[in-house]
């Protein structure tokens, strides 16, 4: 059989209804064949529980009434699982979209299929280090890709075009030869499973870098806030300079970064958002909030 002849290459983008990655409310897909986007799809999804956070609705504009008559995740994803299984999935900030896929499948007791993933955020950072920013809107603007941000179908299309542009520079256009990561099939985790312990070398690396991550984010009113996450005594301690953060609440800026959302991020440290996310997973749910300085 010809190598990978039947394997799909598809860019995927999820929107979520709330801070949980198991709350997918939209999926967009853009297929790549022979160096161009050949098919685009967009589906709304009715999330279990139907809980929409105002923060998420403000980002993507999808409201409960928009999805009330839509299928739930198993029904929607069934149409596309054959393309994902054994295929190559592209996503901008792939850690987020892969984790939405993984956690929403797990919430329905479904198994994660095996596939390769390519993060176009990481690809963009390496390919165009001089770009003014690496979030999807910035890099698309830098490359002259026109799209309507935060529509899942449009975001998937833009992600596919970023990958195609990078592949054209790197290797004559084969997206599958960009750096990829194998995602192994995974059963749904047992309910109440303990979070994984941080490997010792990872904790040591954090200490070397001061165990502290600092972010600047733009609030919904345009104000700029400072979010800090640090490891103290094995717990992840966070703070934000916004009003809620000063009141020791886990504000939407902290939750957004926990969720891997980089849309409000002003500081140029997208990779640190992924580190913060890993810290949160390895430190477990005992994370504390301290008042902002
Ligand atoms: Zn805040």
Describe this protein's structure.
The protein has 293 residues and is α/β, with parallel strands linked by helices. 36% of the residues lie in helices and 22% in strands. It contains twelve helices and ten strands. Strand 4, helix 5 (94-107) and strand 5 (115-119) form a beta-alpha-beta unit. The protein starts with 8 loop residues before the first strand and ends with a strand. The structure holds zinc ion. Zinc ion is lined by residues 225, 240, 242, 244-245, 251, 253. The site of zinc ion has 7 residues, from helix 10.
Please count the beta strands (DSSP E, at least 2 residues each): 10
Instruction: Quickly give the CATH architecture of the largest domain.
Output: 2-Layer Sandwich
* N→C terminal distance: 62 Å
Assigned CATH class of the largest domain: Alpha Beta
The string of secondary-structure elements, in order, is EEEHHHHEHEHHHEHEEEHHHE
Strand content: 15-25%
Share in helix: 25-40%
List segments where confidence is low: pLDDT < 50 over at least 5 consecutive residues.
Answer: 1-5, 192-209
